[in-house]
Amino acid sequence: MAASKPVSKLVSHVIVDLDGTLLNTDSVANQILKSFLAKLGKKWDSKSAHRIVGRTPLEAAAAVVEDYQLPYSKEEFLSMITPLFADQWCNIRPLAGANRLIKHLRSNGVPMALASNSPKSNIEAKISCHNGWKESFSAIVGGDEVEDGKPSPNIFLEAAKRMNTEPSSCLVIEDSVAGVTAGNAAEMEVIAVPSIPKQVDKLSSASEVVNSLLDLQPEKWGLPQFEDWIEGTLPIEPWYIGGPVIKGFGRGSKVLGIPTANLSAESFSDILSEHTSGVYFGWAALSTRGIYKMVMNIGWNPYFANTEKTIEPWLLHEFDEDFYGEELRLAIIGYIKPEANFPSLESLIARIHEDGRIAEKALDLPLYAAYRDSPYLTNPLPESNS
Ligand code: ADP
Ligand code: MG
Prior knowledge:
Elements: E1 13-16, H1 25-39, H2 49-52, H3 57-67, H4 74-86, H5 98-107, E2 112-115, H6 120-127, E3 139-141, H7 154-162, E4 170-174, H8 177-185, E5 189-192, E6 208-209, E7 234-244, H9 269-274, E8 278-286, E9 290-300, E10 309-315, E11 327-337, H10 345-362, H11 366-369, H12 375-378
Parallel strand pairs: 1-2, 1-4, 2-3, 4-5, 5-6
Antiparallel strand pairs: 7-11, 8-9, 8-11, 9-10
The structure holds adenosine-5'-diphosphate and magnesium ion.
């Protein structure tokens, strides 16, 4: 996933979408719909998620009613699920890079608007759960404040108007097809950050498609660049996961010299949905052996309809035996790059080794080395842990 068209237009203002772009709304929406449908004896299929991303609440409700042949009108269904969502607003987590982007633009004085198909009151409720968000936007436009939601350009045009600027000075950041269409129709520059990997082709009308907010390069648009990359790595808010090492897909990675100790992705589907696919690094602890440098890939597993990701940590150490079943704990503290396609196996292997060298070196920087002593890695397992 890389830049699609050469970029020449400079902008001064940024308009961001909320759900799926700044917030991991899908994960909460999936949980709510799953349990609602279960009570009706129906099974939520993550494929339906593709039909609700970026739609207005009523459109999304209509899609679910139709897909599951529910015995309600779309309005009735919407009124039944709205309170379930309202209970969960503060459980919706920011997506990777959202806080970083907001802080960066705000501290550099770049005017920023929020433009979402959700009603204004829902937007306000959602962002009130996140420190510093509300004050960072000089305008907030909800779907109920204009005649037509996205894919109509109205929301974005209204956002530009409220920032007292021209559409041509605005850069839109969007995850959905409807949002990209709306941004194009508003004659704004559009960066697409797909929340559903399968939609990448449909987003190609954007000026640029990036893997995640972590990969934004605002300087391409004449905006201040991020200053936080260090030696080819980006420090991220650390996250910690662990569990017994399980059998992977038997891809024979040991033959390639790159064994990856798999954790059960199912146990981490929520935390993984917040984190973009890509190459990360950090520290790995094996309960009986020690703490090692680690580089890992988070990726989409084609066998799971593109909603489940796998975690593939490669410990940067030579072991003389396997350690299946042992407790493995990871502190993931830095990002290197998006997942990419390679023309050949050799080039893939070469790139993984290069990522390994980048991680190996970066982990000696005091900033990253400090996490080697994280209690999560160094504390023994509690007795009760099973
Ligand atoms: P699988 O598909 O079962 O994960 P791999 O070929 O990826 O098989 O090998 C991974 C296994 O190899 C790990 O589960 C672990 O037991 C072992 N192993 C040996 N050395 C390493 C290493 N440096 N990093 C990760 N796993 C290793
Ligand atoms: Mg493996």
